[in-house]
Structure formats: structure tokens, C-alpha cells
Specification:
0% strand, 61 residues, 1 helix
Amino acid sequence: MTGAYLPSDGGLDDRVPFLSRLASADRSVLLALGRELSVSPRIELLHQHEPSSLVLFIVHG
């Protein structure tokens, strides 16, 4: 994947959301790999030490 991130960006990770750093085509491919879920506030999505085969990518919240 290609994007605007450079290792010498002086801390860009803390200021620019991950999706914004991806090229448009890469962003579309990444988002198309999964499905969108909406959950209520305060719902636990993961539990420590619980085995899982899921990868969660939180877009908003």
C-alpha cells in the first residue's frame, strides 16, 4: 500500500487518522475487505486474553 506517511514525519501518527494517510485506491480496497458494524456506546468489543480470529478496524467512535 502506498500513502503519504513517511517515517521522518515528526509524529504524523498522532495527528493524522490512519485512513487519511492511505492513497484513495488503497483505502477503498481496505474498507472493501470487511463489513460495517454499528454498536451502541459502551459495548465491549474485545476481552483481554480471549482468543479471536477477528480484526477490528474502528473508523469512528
